[in-house]
Each structure stands twice: as structure tokens, then as C-alpha cells.
Design goal:
The protein is an alpha/beta fold. About 35% of the residues lie in helices and about 15% in strands. It folds into two domains: about 130 residues, Enolase-like, N-terminal domain (Enolase-like, domain 1, 2-Layer Sandwich); about 190 residues, Enolase-like C-terminal domain (TIM Barrel, Alpha-Beta Barrel). The strands form three sheets. A seven-stranded parallel sheet has the order 6-7-8-9-10-11-12. It has a three-stranded antiparallel sheet with strand order 2-3-4, with helices on both faces. A two-stranded antiparallel ribbon has the order 1-5.
Length: about 350
Amino acid sequence: MYDAIANLPLTVDSVALDRVERETPAFTRATTVVALAGAGETGRGEDVTYETAHHDALQAHEADTPDGEAFDLAGEYTLDEFSARLEETDLWPVDDPEREAFRDYRRWGFEAAALDLALRQAGETLAERLDRDLDPVRFVVSSRLPEGDTERVETLLDRYPDAELKLDPTADWPEATFDYLADTDAVRVLDLKGHYEGTDVDQSPDPALYERVFETFPDATVEDPAVTDATRDLVADHADRLAWDAPVHALDDVLDAPFDVRWLNVKPSRFGTLESLFETLDWAFERDVALYGGGQFELSVGRGQIQELAALFYPAGPNDVAPGAYNDVELPKEPPKSPISPPDDHTGFGL
């Protein structure tokens, strides 16, 4: 699929950066919108790096550079040539990323902006370029439920009884939380967070928790268990419903999974480049791997872009790409309903 977009012509005249911030139920989220302008059009992508200080540093760098041009990327390219130019460009000119994954997140912001701009300059959509249909996108609503508090889920299901859930179970969930959620029949994905290190969502491998999750939700997809001596046999017994997310930044990571991959949570920003993303999607389609999309608390154009990828490639999956209203501190009185209907007419990249 990458070959279908690699030769898209691209004219870049300037680069602009826009810092975005809002409160979410868990934390204050900041991102940076990357805007590439050229030939009368503007393409946008979103850097979803998780540390606010990195976005502040990028803004300061832009303010300190002549004419506000934080990056000199002007030129005539194909999309593939622009990606090669990014490979040679220091996208972290004033600080180093706290985590290496952030390099991929920022790179994705520039790559997505380039794809958006190239498609707009060509007057095309990604669907047309790939000869695929945009289908309505099923989505799930994700939440962590700190200490097993189900109040937010109860409010959601009261306002939207047909909502489907993606949850992050933790060892401090009481039995009552498992019982309540089992009775709702709304849980579709459970993320064990077994592959995060040095973050606020780290979850140590806990055989008792894993066993409880597998037994309580026998039909749910279970994401990112840590495979250790203590958990390997238990996890192997449920290999057919395991999904992988956090460890996957390229196809090589998929091939290194401890079991045959049956499910993938596709978070485009983890791949960094369009080429890496499409290589992995091609591989998954050839092997009939089940796919669904994931989000990174996008605040701007990035959310519509992951929704478009879901509409093109895995519309029926339990996609963690819900409209941004679900990340508001207070749930809306009338939450948006699944599925998301793609617009009848648009250009560029993103719904």
C-alpha cells in the first residue's frame, strides 16, 4: 500500500507549530499540531508526545528561530523523498525525548501532515489513492477506573446503554468491580499494560489478576500481557485472544511477539513513518490478523486521522478511536454514538 502513496508530489513552503492543551479525566494533555503549507494548501498532523515540557520546548524553539521557522523543510518532493528528508532532520533540536517512543510520535506528526498536504495538493483522498472504501467506524470507550471506581462507566451506560468498553484492569480492582462489569456485558477489550516502563500506567505482571481477567471476561480481547515465567503458561492458554499494542513500533516487533499474533491494536503514531505502518498492515492482511485502531489522547487532527485509518482498514474492530468528547472531564449528556459515519465528501487525510 505504501507504493500507492510514495510517489505523490509534495510542495512544502513553510512549517508552523501550534501547541494545543485541554483537561482530560486523568491529566492535562498537551500536543503539537504540525502544519505544512505549500501551493495554497495546508496539511496537518499531530505530535502526541506525552510530556508537556517537550511541547513547550518546541514552541520556544519556534519563537527563537528566524521568521518562526523551527524546521527548514521547504522544497519539492515526492512523499517518499520528504520522508527521507525527515530521516536526516533533527526533530528534537533543543531537548532529548524522555522516552525513545516519543521520537516516533513526533515523526508521525510530520509524516501525517505531509500525507494530508500531498493529498490536498492532488485533490484526492486516501481512500481513492488506495482504492478502498470508507466504512462506518465502530468504536469502544476506554477508561482506567482508578481503584476500580465504576462511577464514570455507570454514568456512561446510563446515558448510552449500548456503549462498548475498553478498560485497563489493575491489581487494586475489588471483586465488586469485576462482578459489576461482567454483568454489563459491555467489555470488549482489556489492556493489561504489561509492556510499559517508567510511566504512570505501568502494571506489573500479576498471575492472579491475569487469571481473573481471563475468567471474568471469556469473550473479550486481552491486550499486552507481560509474558514471564510466572504468567507464560496462563497467557499461552488464551493466545487466540491476545492483542499486542505497546511493544509494536514496526513489523519486526510483531514478528518478535512471544506467540503467533492473532490481534493487533494499530496505533499509527507508534510506527513513526507511513512506510512502517503500511508494511505492517500489508503483512496483517496477508495473514488474516484481526485489527483494531488505538488512540493517544489526540486533541486535534490526529483523532480524525486515526478514525480515517480505521474506516479504511478495520471499521468493524473494537476501535479505541472514540470521538474526543469522551475525553472531556465531564461526560456529555448525550454522548456520540457508534459507529462514526465518514463524511460524504472530503480531501486530504483525516475525517
